[in-house]
Amino acid sequence: MQKIGFHAATLENGEPGGAMYGSVQGDSEGLTGFLVGWRVGPEDRVLSFRFAARTLLELGKELISSDEVALYELVKNGVDAGSRSIEIVARCVLPYAGYVAALEALDGGVPGRRVLADVRAAFLPGLPADHISSFMGGLELAAGRPRRLKAALQAAYRRHNWIEIRDKGEGMSLETLTDVYLTVGTRSRRRMNVAGATYLGDKGVGRLSAMRLGDHLTVTTTTADDRNWNILKIDWTLFSHESEQSVGDIEIEPERGLRKEDRSEQGTVIRISGLTTDWNQDNFAKLFQGKIARMVDPFEPGRGNRLLKVRFNGSRIVIPSIPAELLQKAHATCIASLKFDKKGIPSIEGKIDYPYRGASREIAQSGAEVYSITQTVWRKRGKRGHAAAKEVPIRPKALQDLGPVDVQVYWYNRLVVEKIPDLTETIKETRDEIKKWSGGPMLFRHGFRILPYGDPDDDWIELDRNAFGQSGFKLNRQQVIGRVSVKSAHTALSEQTNREGLVASEAQQALRTIVMWLLHGEMRELINEADKAERISRREAERLSFEFRTTQQNVQEALETLRRQSTPPQRETVDRLGKLVVLMGDQCEQLVGKTNDAIDESSDEREKFVHLAGIGLMTEFIFHELDRAVGHTMGLLGELEGGAYSGALQALESQLQTLQKRVAAFDDLAGEKRQSKSTFDLAEVVRLVIENHANQFQRHSIKVTFDFEGKYRINAVRGMVIQILENLVANSVYWLRQQKRLEDNFKPTIAIDIDPETKALTVEDNGPGVDPRRRESIFEPFVTSKPPGQGRGLGLYISRELARYHGWQLYLDDNTGRARPGRMNMFVLDMDEETK
Question: What is the pLDDT of residues 268-284, one digit of tens each?
Fold first, then answer.
């Protein structure tokens, strides 16, 4: 008889002679196998790692953490075998707790008759009489002999307490049972997934699910080519902690079973007996109508019942789907998709609807906008003092590997829900129905959940963290029912072997960032804006206006590092730089103070927010630029010596002086002059703004043209006009940088022009542009296509508000295709008050 047991997948690549050799199979995403040894001569003696049988038990506990996960894995195995439906049949007569109590009583010397009376009392209610008589048969005869009674009780429990998972898939041959099923960590399906298959599982550890549910396993299976059934039996108690055997020493041998009546029949029946969970009708039904119902895409009506036929002690258990009536009553929805055109250019398109408030917002991002959303932003300053916020763009190949993504999110304001006709009769029932399916967006691949995303304890896109950090608790997980569907191969989005999420990768991070951008940057802000519930208060506006102080501290710490590594003559320059930074900080604070005092008597909260936040935004822009300049200089440490290094410090001082001029230019926006209009030359202001950004334009190779000759005098608040121009230029620079990362040989340009006849100023760039559907939404507060936490979404909003203060209009020219097909690239500041 051939001895067969569990083994880890291995490779062999030994070399002849006296040399050590080894091999490893697996990767960071799955179970690894290994073989190491020493070839000592012609007899090829090999020493190798071995592991105790009980290690397999521990492995199962770590990888299959709950009963629902175990059942889910067995269901997925049936799906991967090609079965269109799967039966799950449970028969439970005596609860596990009653069984264990009876065994302990027998071991404690309790008389057999009394033990049997307790067993009868512990039977599940409502059992058919034949179930009870069949279970008790033989036990009565052994009542007077404790050892025999114990053995008979163990056999009866194993015979009458079981769960079967039945499928009509391709089945397994005797060879497959031997070479594949008994190999933990086999990667055959992984190789097929790499080749383009869509198997749900490819780790080779799903068979450990049976160990979680019961002590005994019987696999009965056959393929269409087999003449017989093939049978495998495993007693998991042999792998217990008491066992000192090696896993390979426990003999397990598949055998050929009875001949098939129908030669074409195929499929598998997995029977798990000696159950180790207290199953009853209620908790079995609760499991399938709750956690497992959420694992088989519940957004598709009836899908769970078409796939799963579940019975417990003969009673059918219905698998629910999310009621369509419930989704239709959502107060707000976000429906969006990530797609790729024939050239591989990505786009995110969709719509956010808030019918409760009559508000909506189109989602239309493509090309560089998508790459901007999915980039990684690092905020921690490095040892050498690099900029506090560093953008790392995703590789185009990694984003394409992510593939199409569909997002559906339904939000409910639980305070105003009502009963739903044909679904609920009270408000409480409606809330209970929402609670049943809420928990944040669930992640699905090919219609099956990727765990644990969307579980009660999982906040994978930080909905609660963000919601509870704000007033109103808007868009927390208890208010959200959602589905994120991917079709990506396991090679791009691979699941961790322990079912605790996806393996970290660029595609995984991009998926998370896209969903966070949709919900935090788009949906939440639409809800907040429409409700007027999260309007920024005076205190919050003041906090925003002092954000620059954090960046200033980073700059001063970096300068201190520069000072320590400089020579005495160079330190004089660094000291001047430090004083200049402090001066700039004080000037910015004075600007905030003047603005604050000037609007103190205003009762218009909108005006307070616009002016305070506007000043804060500008000072933050300036200090971010300063932070980058200092970080760049620090990056030259060790690369330059002597005069070259001193020259770099002098260049940094020149940049600081330019930035200080930009601070001084905003003085007219604050204090008593805030609302004082004056007559000045707009062309001179444009040239001033261009000059102030000269270093930035040079650094990013941006060609700026302003060919207007002569003067164009206007009557306006000079500081406000400067701020509008600053915001428009900063917006262009950002998107030109993003396009340059995406497009080889790209030559970024900005064209500014003044048209005296139409009384308009235009700012146009050749970056990615804006989809016409977002022509208006980009001017709404907090709307941004920058990654979460990187962009505030206030620049264009504040600019339009400042234009409206003058009776002007700021808008996107509706002429598409000037720089890119189907996109708008020109901002127009229309200063003709007579046409309003």
Answer: 999 999 999 999 999 99
Under 8 Å between Cβ of 95 and 70: no
The answer to whether the beta carbons of residues 23 and 34 sit under 8 Å apart is yes
Using a 10 angstrom Cβ sphere, with 0-12 exposed, 13-18 middle and 19 or more buried, the burial of residue 347 is: middle
Distance CA 35, CA 199 (A): 28
CA distances in angstroms from 785 to 188, 354, 520, 811, listed in the order given: 42, 20, 11, 18
Token pair, residue 469, equals 């950090």
Q: What is the pLDDT of residues 487-499, one digit of tens each?
A: 988 778 888 877 7
d(CA 222, CA 583): 82
Q: For the ranges 210-219, 309-318, 569-578, which has the lowest average pLDDT?
A: 569-578
Cα 367 to Cα 347: distance, rounded to the nearest angstrom: 6
For residue 598, pLDDT beyond 80: no
Higher pLDDT, 623 or 166: 166
CB 777, CB 359: distance < 8 Å: no
> In a 3-state reduction of DSSP, which class is residue 476?
coil
d(CA 469, CA 472): 9
Collapsed DSSP state (helix, strand, coil) of residue 755: strand
Burial classification of residue 45, based on how many CB atoms lie within 10 Å of its CB (0-12 exposed, 13-18 middle, 19 or more buried): exposed
Distance, in Å, from the CA atom of 36 to the CA atom of 525, rounded to the nearest integer, reads 58
The per-type count for the chain, helices as H runs and strands as E runs, is: 27, 28
CA distance 574 to 563: 6
SS3 string of 355-424? CCCCEEEEEEEECHHHHHHHCEEECCCCCCCCCCCEEECCCHHHHHHHCCEEEEEEECCCCCCCCCCCCC
Q: What stretches of 417-537 adopt beta strand conformation (E)? A: 440-445, 448-449, 480-486
H or E stretch including 580? Answer: helix 568-598
Coil/strand/helix, residue 388: coil
Q: Rg (Cα) of the chain, in Å, rounded?
A: 35
Q: How many CB atoms lie within 10 A of CB 527?
A: 24
Q: Is the pLDDT of residue 793 over 90?
A: no
| pLDDT tens digits for range 406-446 | 999 999 998 889 999 999 999 999 999 999 999 999 999 99
Residue whose C-alpha is closest to residue 609's, from 540, 674, 517, 708: 540
Provide the 10 A C-beta neighbour count for residue 491: 14
Mean pLDDT (the chain) is 82
> Which residue in 781, 802, 801, 799 sits closest to 536, CA to CA?
781
Neighbours of 752 (CB within 10 A): 24
Task: Name the strand (E) or helix (H) holding 87.
Answer: strand 86-91
CB 685 within 8 A of CB 724: no
Residue 610: pLDDT above 70?
Answer: no
Four-point Cα dihedral 100, 103, 109, 113, nearest 10? 100
Size of the chain, expressed as the number of residues it contains: 836
Diameter of the chain by CA atoms?
116
Which residues fall within 8 angstroms of residue 162, CB to CB, at 6 or more apart?
A: 90, 91, 214, 271, 272, 273, 275
Lowest mean pLDDT, pick from 232-241, 333-342, 366-375: 232-241
The reply to whether omega before 393 is within 30° of 0 (cis) is no
